[in-house]
Amino acid sequence: MKSKIIIIIAFVFVQNVTSQTIEEVLSNIYAQYSAKEPLQFNMTYNLYKSFSSEKVHQSYNGVYHKNASNAIYMKINETEILNNKEVSIKVSHEDKALLVSNPELNVDGAYDMSKLLEVYKKESFEDKNTYWEIELIAKEVTSEYSKIRLHISKDYFLQKQVFFYANAINFSKDYKTTDIQTPRLEILYTDYSKKVSDEHKFKTVTFLQIKKGAPVVLSPGLKGYELIDKR
Prior knowledge:
The protein is mainly beta and 231 residues long. The chain is 13% helix and 42% strand. The protein contains two helices and 16 strands. The protein has helices spanning 2-18, 22-34, and strands spanning 39-48, 56-66, 72-76, 79-83, 88-92, 97-101, 120-127, 131-138, 145-153, 158-165, 169-170, 180-181, 184-193, 208-209, 217-218, 226-229. The strands form three sheets. The protein has a twelve-stranded mixed sheet, covered by helices on one side. Strand 4 (79-83) and strand 5 (88-92) form a beta hairpin. The longest helix has 17 residues, at 2-18. The model is unreliable at 1-18 (pLDDT under 50).
């Protein structure tokens, strides 16, 4: 009798997992990323020249850190972003420029995947055993991407996003020739942790000092950067 009960419970659990809708899964993703608790993970951005290409054309890395106060620090390639209760800061090391503005209220809104359904329609939803795969197709031809594919873990964290571009791009660096391809971008998410490795990342003074009635002073590491103050 005991074994039968275990089998029945397991069967009910499986049914509950697989009976979820796309809307429920996408909504639960945002719940994970917007929770008021620490979260950090790594990202890898791989650009391929075509939908089917297996050779990476361009690649760069990123990190995402959030503390219990929902302050967010990100670094994507040569750009750093900080958003806390005081300010929003974006630093382009490539352009040697820093933009400071008022705090953004919903920075983690980028992970509100349910908003995708406003622009994309459901194409497929498959249970791949350890993760879900969702494919969305653009409703309008004016969309930046013709298709988006999501791999989502069973605890509602992104494993991979694949963006299939709607328009072709000329990859040629020589004006005499053309290399027109329709690319895809894959973003891989790894090393999830609910710990904060360095609280200093979330402090405004890491980048600049703001004192009432005084000019903004950039940190020594940003000396010579252009300051754009949009507050």
